[in-house]
Sequence to fold (544 residues):
Amino acid sequence: MPLKSWLENLSSPTLMRAGQALLAQQAVSMLACDTEQCQARVQDGQHSYLVTLAEQSTCECGTDNQGGCAHMAATALAWLQHSAAGLTTQRKASKTASAQASAGPLRARLEQHSSAELAQLLDTLCQRSREVSQQVTLWLERRGQAPAALKAALSQMLGRAHFRDYQATKRYVASLEPMLDALHELLAEGQAASAAELADWAQQRLIKVLENADDSGGYLGELMGELSTLLATACEQGGMPTPALVKLLAKRCLEDEWGLYTPERFAAALGPQGLQALAEVVHQAWAKQPSYPPGSPGRQGYRGESLDSVMVELAQLIGNPDWEIAALSRDSRCGYQCLRAAQAMHAAGRVRAAIAWLEQGIRHYPDDTRQHVCLARWYWDDGLEQEAQGLLWTHFEQRPTLERFQLLRQYSGANWPHWRAQCEALLSAQQAYGHSVLIECLLDDDGLDATLPRVRAEWLNASFLEELATRCMADHPAQAIRWLGDLLAQAQETASNPAYHDVVRLLRKLQTLLPEAEFAQRLADLRQTYHRRRNLMLLLNQAF
Fold:
């Protein structure tokens, strides 16, 4: 699955935490989703961005970072949640249908036997299967109404934390379903306090299990998410007094690395006063962290970053923009954090402070396109058109790319001829180094016909030249034949399997352009010249 692969390859914990924060704010609106691609709209501050995740992922925020952005991370996390929810529903429906299909005939046959016979059978099964023994013990203790005995039965079922591979983790999770059923029964019977206490205790045990397990299938994480939801529901039903819940969450959410105790999840149980009390306790712990303004040395620490995310979430829930801005700007050792803090300032109406902060971020992290896009938009909205254009020109001058060329054009208005001439002059002066970017920009601005006379094939890399030749096949076949022939001559000189595949691909394109006799002669010459290259001959025989 491309989306899951994208998420697994995401190397920045900063982006992952930012994506989790956006997801917790319910900022992701899924538009379309299947197993191969996903499209969503992500609300970030005052701005909304369209995100597409597929083989070629894009986001309207304008990032040119190959590692993605927080909006992509949030969309991928939402997609995983969507997929997990679908799989959970399918598994539960399948399990229920299977149980219903088999229970009828089997139950009828069991009812024909005496209780003593059934007890003997159950005792034998318990001796043969540890899992059955644990489930029966749990069932008995649940009926016995003894909290300590029930906890002991759950403890036996949870077991010890040790390494479990993928299959062992999957089996382990399946064995814990009776635990969830027992806790749901407690809740349904009005024993919310017992359900809340046992759910939190079990969650802490499972966190240790998760730290030592291969949960790449997400089975254990899914179970723990259900357990957290159950805990929150129990608290909403009065399972824990608000002061006790505040004390518990103040401890748990500061240690939480898995998103199991997020303030948003427990907001309904806490209520406005509980949220305010929790925010004040967390703020005291957060305030002890050192501050790192833009340009500070070092890298963001995961512990501090996690605490910042909790503080931001609480500040948003209680409507305190000062705390939100302070938490977002505490550690500004990367461009994206500068951007998030500035957007929060802007959303709070502090436009001048937001612009000044983002200007500072750009000075220290000039390669982050997202900052330039945001600041240019603010300049433009404020009537500072020349400042917006100058900012984007400097951004293009530092590292010319097609994307930065397009951004400059977007904000140039009537001044576009001037800025385009500047771009052309800069790229032309770089000769071979800037020629590929120059041709990309001209193609985007003028189209193929006007750009072809400016192309110097010897200054283009092979992949770009092939792409250009392919675009010429319909309306400029002679030019396409010339360039494809040059590329074929280069490829056939290299004795390697990747080069042989390149030869076959180029020949297939030439086959659609050349007369049949001419192509046949070219193919025959190639076979004669390189007849000793067996792998090449094999590929040619398969293709033609």
About this structure: Residues 218 and 485 are 51 Å apart (CA to CA). The beta strands are 28-33, 38-44, 47-53, 58-59. Residues 461-544 form one domain.
